[in-house]
Amino acid sequence: MALLTRTRPQPHPLAYVAQTHVAPFPYRVRDVVLLGRLPQSGWLAPVRSRDFRAADALLDELGILALAERPYTEISGGERQLTLIARALAQGAGLLVMDEPMAGLDYGAQVRLMRLLQTLRNKGIGVLVSTHHPEHAFWASDRIVLLEQGRISVSGAPRAVLDAEAIKRLYRVTVTALTAPDGRAAFLPELA
User: Fold this and answer.
1) d(CA 30, CA 58)
2) Burial of 49 (0-12, 13-18, 19+ CB in 10 A)
3) Res 150 pLDDT > 80
4) d(CA 19, CA 122)
5) Any alpha helices (H) in 38-184, and if so which ranges?
6) What are the backbone dihedrals phi and psi of residue 78, each rounded to the nearest 5 degrees, phi first?
7) I want to staple 104 with a disulfide (CB 3.0 to 4.6 A). Which of 52, 58, 78, 96 is the partner?
8) CA–CA separation, 72 vs 70, rounded Å?
9) Percentage above 70 pLDDT, the chain
10) Residue 17: which of 124, 120, 90 has the closest Cα?
């Protein structure tokens, strides 16, 4: 449409990060992120220096700038996930929807991503994340929706919704709820 009307392309209001992605070609990591800039620049527009700077800044923020020249098909699953998150962020959308973004990430990458999600939220960017890890939901959310068998069972503020009883009901495991001095919760499963 932009080519026909000569109007400037606009960023999509929503960016999505799937759980898995199979690349059809061995694109370089930076090129995958640059694909996220297409809604802003247009399909046939040349890649501008500011697009490269934006892509590299996102790769750096996610801790994978060193992978920029590597083929996407040759990096680990966690590194691919971070690349897809960078691509989604490159779109500049007002709402970021992520399906289990922590899957495949090592502990450090999970912590960095949680910090990034909090930063995005503080900037007014909506973030909708699905997760099977209660702590992730608790730490980075101001509202939680619990699903049981595909239906909403309860929603609300994390402290009001997510407790040991809710974990037991959802996952059929008994846990002890722990609270850190800063108020964040963690759940320790009973293994015996």
Assistant:
1) 10
2) exposed
3) yes
4) 24
5) 38-41, 49-61, 77-90, 107-122, 134-140, 158-161, 164-171
6) -65, -40
7) 78
8) 6
9) 94
10) 90
Q: Determine the pLDDT at residue 183.
A: 81
Provide the token pair at 29. Answer: 């990591």
The token duo for 17 is 């990060």
Global pTM value = 0.82
Token code pair at residue 164: 């040991």
**Contacts for 137-144 with beta carbons within 8 Å, 24 or more apart?**
137/162, 138/162, 138/184, 138/185, 139/114, 139/184, 140/114
Q: pLDDT tens digits, residue range 167-179?
A: 999 999 999 999 8
Name, in order, each residue with C-beta under 8 angstroms of 119's C-beta and a sequence gap of 6 or more: none
Q: pLDDT digits over 26-64, tens only?
A: 999 999 999 999 877 777 778 888 999 999 999 999 999
Cα separations in angstroms, 77 against 6, 7, 22, 105 = 39, 38, 11, 8
Q: Which position has the token pair 């620049």?
A: 41
Report angle CA 94, 154, 150 to the nearest 5 degrees. 80
